[in-house]
Design brief:
Blueprint (H helix, E strand, L loop, with lengths): L2 H16 L2 E5 L5 H11 L2 E4 L6 H7 L2 E5 L5 H16 L3 E5 L7 H10 L5 E5 H8 L18 H11 L2 E5 L3 E4 L4 E4 L12 H13 L5 H19 L6 H13 L3 H9 L10
Parallel strand pairs: 1-2, 1-3, 3-4, 4-5, 5-6
Antiparallel strand pairs: 6-7, 7-8
């Protein structure tokens, strides 16, 4: 049994046992999908659009997922307030800078939220936009491969000491103390709106029970992409894949996971 598989199983079991509350300030497009994925994972998801309840919710939340997919001035103020409250309580904040680089307002907000985050997860274009206000992109669709964002991710880490996750065909996880790569996953994941948004939420769930945020991000991505691969064993169409994916998040085939991991080169000596 590989150490990676054992770590994945143990942290997932810890998550199932503790049922962490994940607070989501997120876009309107994927809220339902995100809530169902978190619920299937074993978390207690809660969404909020009210500034008045932030102090109470951040007190009981175990982690915060900030997603700027549908932003306006009120959302920006709410996200900044929530991020500051979580930071004051030393709780994990995951930032998903959706569309950074597509507009000045998105890029500016993402860069303002960056100091409040512990983990940043985006596609290569979004991560490059975080590193440079002059970088422009198509937004949610990355215009470059994940490896192209390596310099930007490393520069963000050097300046902020954050954990940076770059999603793509190869997922890259960078942190001051560790680097990981993930090659699991399938093309069908790109055909369902919200797969990236939900991944950030799942990372927030794992980070609620594993304070090594680089490792938590890595294990969350391994779990997420293996669930996607498992779901795709029974379908090749986006709509049915989405349903089966949620089912796999809820009920993973651990024997199949162990086989996939043991036959890959992704065996890390990890501790949590």
């Amino acid at each position: 049994m590989s150490n990676l598989y054992q770590q994945l199983y143990d942290v997932h079991q810890k998550l199932q046992d503790s049922k962490p509350l994940v607070l989501n300030l997120t876009n309107y497009v994927t809220q339902d999908f995100m809530a169902n994925v978190l619920l299937a994972l074993g978390c207690a998801p809660i969404m909020s659009e009210d500034n008045e309840e932030l102090a109470e919710l951040t007190t009981i939340a175990h982690s915060l997922n900030l997603n700027i997919g549908t932003l306006d001035t009120k959302f920006a103020h709410r996200a900044i307030s929530a991020g500051k409250l979580m930071q004051q309580q030393n709780k994990c904040v995951v930032l998903d800078p959706v569309g950074a680089g597509a507009s000045k307002s998105r890029t500016d907000l993402a860069q303002e939220l960056l100091p409040l985050a512990n983990i940043v997860r985006g596609n290569a274009s979004e991560i490059m936009a975080l590193n440079s206000s002059s970088f422009s992109s198509y937004g949610v669709e990355s215009s470059v491969e994940s490896l192209s964002a390596m310099f930007s991710a490393q520069n963000i880490i050097k300046q902020t000491q954050k954990t940076v996750v770059v999603s793509g065909k190869i997922d890259l996880i960078y942190a001051p103390h560790a680097n990981y790569q993930n090659k699991f996953g399938i093309e069908l994941m790109t055909k369902v709106t919200g797969m990236g948004c939900c991944l950030s939420a799942v990372i927030a769930g794992f980070a609620a029970v594993c304070q090594d945020y680089a490792l938590a991000s890595y294990l969350a991505i391994i779990y997420y992409t293996l669930c996607a691969e498992q779901a795709a064993l029974d379908t090749s169409a986006p709509a049915s894949f989405k349903v089966k994916f949620i089912d796999c998040i809820y009920q993973p085939d651990w024997a199949w996971f162990e086989s996939r991991i043991s036959h890959s080169s992704q065996v890390e000596d990890t501790k949590c």
